[in-house]
Amino acid sequence: MNNKNIKLLLMKKLNLKEIYVTGDNKHIKIIAIGNVFIGLSSVKKQQIVYEPLIEMITEKHIHAVSILTYTNEEWEKHKK
Protein backbone atom coordinates (compact mmCIF):
# COMPACT_ATOMS: atom_id res chain seq x y z
CA MET A 1 0.00 0.00 0.00
CA ASN A 2 1.43 3.35 -0.98
CA ASN A 3 1.35 6.61 0.97
CA LYS A 4 -1.57 7.96 -1.05
CA ASN A 5 -3.69 4.91 -0.21
CA ILE A 6 -2.74 5.12 3.47
CA LYS A 7 -3.69 8.80 3.48
CA LEU A 8 -7.06 8.11 1.83
CA LEU A 9 -7.80 5.25 4.24
CA LEU A 10 -7.05 7.34 7.33
CA MET A 11 -8.96 10.38 6.04
CA LYS A 12 -12.01 8.20 5.41
CA LYS A 13 -11.87 6.24 8.68
CA LEU A 14 -10.91 9.08 11.02
CA ASN A 15 -12.62 12.14 9.52
CA LEU A 16 -9.43 14.21 9.71
CA LYS A 17 -8.92 17.82 8.66
CA GLU A 18 -5.45 17.11 7.24
CA ILE A 19 -3.01 14.24 7.09
CA TYR A 20 0.56 13.89 5.87
CA VAL A 21 2.08 10.50 5.10
CA THR A 22 5.75 10.19 4.17
CA GLY A 23 8.34 7.44 3.93
CA ASP A 24 8.22 4.06 2.25
CA ASN A 25 5.83 1.19 2.91
CA LYS A 26 8.17 -0.30 5.49
CA HIS A 27 8.71 2.85 7.57
CA ILE A 28 6.08 5.55 7.42
CA LYS A 29 5.59 8.83 9.24
CA ILE A 30 2.09 10.12 9.79
CA ILE A 31 1.03 13.58 10.90
CA ALA A 32 -2.70 13.52 11.59
CA ILE A 33 -4.75 16.66 12.29
CA GLY A 34 -8.33 16.62 13.44
CA ASN A 35 -10.68 17.36 16.29
CA VAL A 36 -11.12 13.62 16.79
CA PHE A 37 -8.09 13.95 19.12
CA ILE A 38 -9.59 16.55 21.48
CA GLY A 39 -9.27 15.55 25.12
CA LEU A 40 -7.53 12.24 24.47
CA SER A 41 -4.31 10.92 25.95
CA SER A 42 -1.27 10.48 23.71
CA VAL A 43 -1.71 6.71 23.86
CA LYS A 44 -5.38 6.88 22.84
CA LYS A 45 -4.52 9.22 19.93
CA GLN A 46 -1.93 6.73 18.67
CA GLN A 47 -4.38 3.85 19.03
CA ILE A 48 -6.98 5.69 16.94
CA VAL A 49 -4.47 6.10 14.09
CA TYR A 50 -3.11 2.54 14.38
CA GLU A 51 -6.54 0.87 14.29
CA PRO A 52 -7.21 1.26 10.53
CA LEU A 53 -3.59 0.20 9.80
CA ILE A 54 -3.42 -2.87 12.04
CA GLU A 55 -4.03 -5.40 9.28
CA MET A 56 -1.24 -3.93 7.13
CA ILE A 57 1.08 -3.94 10.14
CA THR A 58 0.31 -7.53 11.17
CA GLU A 59 0.69 -8.70 7.55
CA LYS A 60 4.08 -6.91 7.48
CA HIS A 61 3.16 -4.51 4.66
CA ILE A 62 4.15 -1.76 7.08
CA HIS A 63 7.07 -2.40 9.42
CA ALA A 64 7.25 0.78 11.50
CA VAL A 65 4.98 3.76 12.00
CA SER A 66 5.79 7.12 13.54
CA ILE A 67 2.68 9.11 14.46
CA LEU A 68 2.21 12.73 15.44
CA THR A 69 -1.31 13.92 16.21
CA TYR A 70 -2.74 17.40 16.59
CA THR A 71 -6.16 18.88 17.13
CA ASN A 72 -7.04 21.61 14.63
CA GLU A 73 -6.15 24.27 17.23
CA GLU A 74 -2.84 22.60 18.17
CA TRP A 75 -1.89 22.38 14.49
CA GLU A 76 -2.49 26.10 13.94
CA LYS A 77 -0.19 26.89 16.89
CA HIS A 78 2.41 24.34 15.71
CA LYS A 79 2.61 25.82 12.21
CA LYS A 80 3.58 29.28 13.52
Automatic annotation (TrEMBL):
Highest rank taxon of the organism: Bacteria
Presence of the UniProt keyword DNA-binding in the record: yes
Keywords carried by this UniProt record: DNA-binding
One Pfam assignment: BolA
A GO term for molecular function: DNA binding
Keyword presence, DNA-binding: yes
Family recorded in the similarity comment: Belongs to the BolA/IbaG family.
The protein's name in its UniProt record: Putative DNA-binding transcriptional regulator
Species whose genome carries this gene: Buchnera aphidicola str. Ua (Uroleucon ambrosiae)
